[in-house]
Amino acid sequence: MTEYTPTHVGTVTKYVVVESFDVTPADLALRGYEISQGVMIKETCFGIVINGNEEEVDRIITELRKMDPDNIFVKDRGFPPGDARRCRANLGGARPGYNGMEHEMTLIPYVSHGLKELKKRDEKTIPLPENPLEHPLLDIYKLKILIDAQES
Amino acid sequence: MAKVFIYPATSLILSDMVARFGHTPLSSATAIRERIQTAGLESPPLQITPEEPKKGLRWAAVEVPSGVRGRMSLYGPMIGDCEAAIIINDADLAFGCMGCARTNELVKFLIHQKEIPKLELNYPKNEEEGVRFVAAIKRFLTELGGTR
């Protein structure tokens, strides 16, 4: 086994994913470069990856979110941008972990719609979603109606 | 500001929602980052060394496969630290080999055992469900209090 010397120690990396009709990843990258001080920004097909010290990255993300708050989503990343262990340029095919993000990106429009609606409505007036762990028992009267419907 | 464990731990939507509403998401990326940024022996790609399955013994017995114990060394400390949890139950993206599948089962079991506020959800499948999904998360996180 060889010794491992880490790079980018003390930095954070975050994905900024955009799913918008008005803002493209190129717009995000351009705006990011305009306001950045000493961070690394990489443009990707789904948004950008930012690496740098935590305060600076958070400041840039706060500014970027203002471009389209309901359609920009952010999450942490373990590896720095372009890391040979993860970058698809070295591995070929989709980056490990991209499939999960790709799946969620198909659902982001629903979440964006929810965020927009919440600005107009009070969340306390919106009914809760069904609890997936609850398996409601079939009501006996409903069962009788079903049986009657089958027999008639 | 509460530490909120998210399941799937790689979820973009949950990670964003938790941070957006003023709390700290506990996701697998932060656990991986710790290992990637710590000097030691080279063990690519995730810097999971032979020490990790030993640490995983705290959450899984010795006869449990090392793959599960290694993964638990990432998730176990986060489950210990978390003050609340949001779980998506129909997350097909969290599928994987037996190591991943059994770790997912164990992670869900440990969260359900822990007496903390929990929110159980499914992914939204249309716009109305999207509204309910976001409203439920916002209400849950607001009730936790201590937002930044």
Question: What are the defining features of this structure?
Answer:
heterodimer; A: 152 residues; alpha+beta; Alpha-Beta Plaits; B: 148 residues; alpha/beta; 49% helix
What does this molecule look like?
The complex is a heterodimer of chains A (152) and B (148). Chain A contains 5 helices and 5 strands; from the N terminus they run E-E-H-E-E-H-E-H-H-H. Chain A has 152 residues and is α+β, with helices and mostly antiparallel strands. Chain B is α/β, with parallel strands linked by helices and 148 residues long. Chain B has a 4-stranded parallel β-sheet with strand order 2-1-4-5, sandwiched between helices. The model of chain B has no long low-confidence stretch (mean pLDDT 93). The interface between A and B is large, with 53 and 54 residues. Strand 1 of chain A pairs antiparallel with strand 3 of chain B.
Order of helices and strands of chain B: EHEHEHHEHEH
Q: How many extended strands of chain B?
A: 5
Query: Number of helix segments of chain A?
Result: 5
- Shape call of chain A: elongated
Largest sheet features of chain B: 4 strands, parallel
Using the coordinates above, name the CATH class of chain A: Alpha Beta
Q: Please report the number of helical segments of chain B.
A: 6
Q: Strand share of the residues of chain A?
A: 15-25%
User: Termini separation of chain B (Å)?
Assistant: 6 Å
Contiguous low-pLDDT stretches of chain B (5 residues minimum) are none
Short account of what is shown:
The complex is a heterodimer of chains A (152) and B (148). Chain A has 152 residues and is of the alpha+beta class.
Write the layout of secondary structure elements.
The complex is a heterodimer of chains A (152) and B (148).
Chain A (H helix, E strand, L loop, with lengths): L2 E2 L7 E7 L6 H11 L4 E4 L3 E6 L1 H12 L6 E6 L10 H4 L6 H23 L19 H12 L1
Antiparallel strand pairs in A: 2-4, 2-5, 3-4
Chain B lengths: L2 E5 L4 H9 L3 E3 L1 H9 L3 E2 L9 H5 L10 H16 L2 E5 L9 H16 L4 E4 L5 H18 L4
Parallel strand pairs in B: 1-2, 1-4, 4-5
